[in-house]
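Q: Convert this sequence to structure tokens.
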Amino acid sequence: MASEKQKMLAGELYRATGEELAADARRVAEWMDRYNASIARTQDQYRVLLREMLAEVGEGAYVRPPFHCDYGYNIRLGKGVFLNFNCVILDVVNVTIGDGTQIGPGVQILTADHPRDPAQRRAGLEFGRPIRIGANVWIGGGAIVLPGVTVGDDAVIGAGAVVTRDVRAGATVVGNPAKERAA
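A:
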């Protein structure tokens, strides 16, 4: 029988309970305390800390604290990725951010989702859908990227946009829900 963590990582319905996930949550909470309390560090020193927790951290990637995530081990940052202050990544499944992508302050990247069936929600079930953000994407401050979205290379997501659907390469999307803006 699969553990709740195994079910979570597979994108299946799971309960965010049990000692395995609790231990992971404690570990990332302790790490976030250290990361977010660190001031006057160099970008290289921040990268060392990021590599302690994240699945992959490309050369030149930089995340300005404070930063918050669910587990960390499902996050992959490409080369030269930049996340500004107060970003949140709920990474119950994979989040991949391509090379050179820039993410504004207060952006939320949310893989965690909940069943539409009320009985399943009452039972405490949830699941995740991976997010992939391509290379050289710009995401404006306060934007929200919802579960299962893929953002193509060179796309722009306007500040405050709520991205509910895939964004094609090179497109600019704005609004709630985010819609492609004519060139």
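Residues 19-37 form the longest helix (19 residues).
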